[in-house]
Design brief:
It contains 13 helices and eleven strands. With about 325 residues, the protein is α/β, with parallel strands linked by helices.
Length: about 325
């Protein structure tokens, strides 16, 4: 991963540090005991605002504390709950630049730290150091988000551990240089598990996180599925031109999704419907004009054959219609 080398210390027109204070109640609809620093100007690294985004108060409060008090915040929860999007949408309203890094198995230590590369200078080949994404972001007014934090390789995780202290300096051994974090640098991460591994087997590739490293996260917040009423508002805002019949179908979809979530928690199912799945189902319903066909395409065909009888039972309870012909 190569950072955008052309970007200056202050991205675009963004001031070097936040130049205004904003109210959580004004931007997010609930009160906090502190105000949040924000930028008056935005640039290409500031996420686009989703005006219909629903902010969950507890998770939002944790994220805002990260911005206001320079706390390292880890957001944990099931897939599809919008953890990374939550951070992005908060940052979007603060005009704070964001860059996301997915800690999959292809991200290496050199991607984060940097490496020597061969370049042409005055017509000659020279070896020069190209900094990685971590020192690049660390020295700028920037939010760095590590997605899938519990899937990172051990050698990568130990590199990150160096900057988890609020004012933790980063040492570039290859250059004998010590980097101090920019005053407006913020660090967040998202994870499906809480660092203790995944006994459910749902999130393959995740692993336990060194507890010494977990202890360095100042705030750990949970973002899980929304109440029915809030989830209905989210889905309805994403799927346009709904009539009364479609709205009723979406309510049943959400009831169906909640049954799969309860089944997953109880160990009856290995596949669960996220809010993202419900949105896809509603969109596919509009495409195909049929709730059941959209359900098969969106979720049912992904499920273990041994669990389809349970899912068909859930469907019948929510839609008063049998899926048994699908099982034959």
């Amino acid at each position: 991963m190569t950072p955008p080398q052309a970007m200056s210390k202050s991205p675009g027109n963004t001031p070097e540090t936040p130049d205004q204070m904003v109210s959580a109640e004004k931007l997010f609809g609930f009160k906090l005991g502190f105000q949040i620093p924000a930028f008056s100007e935005k640039n290409e690294y500031v996420p686009q605002i989703d005006p219909e985004y629903h902010f969950e108060p507890e998770a939002t409060s944790a994220i805002l504390a990260g911005f206001a008090h320079n706390r390292r915040v880890l957001l944990q929860g099931y897939h599809g709950t919008g953890k990374s999007t939550h951070i992005e949408q908060v940052a979007a309203r603060l005009n704070w630049p964001v860059i996301r890094v997915n800690l999959d198995s292809h991200i290496s230590r050199t991607d984060l730290v940097g490496r020597d590369v061969i370049a042409l200078k005055d017509g000659k080949q020279v070896t020069q150091f190209q900094e990685g994404i971590l020192p690049w972001a660390l020295t700028r007014p920037m939010v760095l988000v590590f997605d899938e934090y519990d899937a990172g390789r051990p050698d990568v995780m130990f590199v990150i551990q160096r900057v988890l202290e609020t004012n933790g300096k980063f040492t570039l051994l290859d250059q004998n240089r010590i980097i101090s974090p920019h005053p407006a640098f913020r660090l967040f991460a998202t994870a499906n598990t809480i660092g203790l591994g995944d006994p459910s087997g749902l999130y393959h590739g995740t692993q336990p996180i060194n507890q010494g490293q977990m202890d360095r996260w100042n705030i750990v917040a949970t973002l899980n599925y929304l109440p029915k009423e809030d989830e209905f508002k989210v889905v309805s805002s994403k799927v346009k031109n709904l009539n009364a019949k479609s709205k009723e179908a979406i309510k049943n979809m959400i009831s169906m999704a909640n049954l799969t979530r309860e089944g997953f928690i109880q160990g009856d199912l290995s596949t669960v419907m996220s809010p993202r799945t419900v949105i896809n189902w509603a969109e596919n319903m509009q495409i195909f004009g049929d709730v059941e066909q959209a359900f098969r395409y969106t979720f049912f065909n992904k499920c273990d054959e041994n669990e389809r009888t349970i899912i068909a039972e859930y469907y019948q309870r929510c839609f008063n219609k049998s899926l048994l012909n699908t099982l034959e």
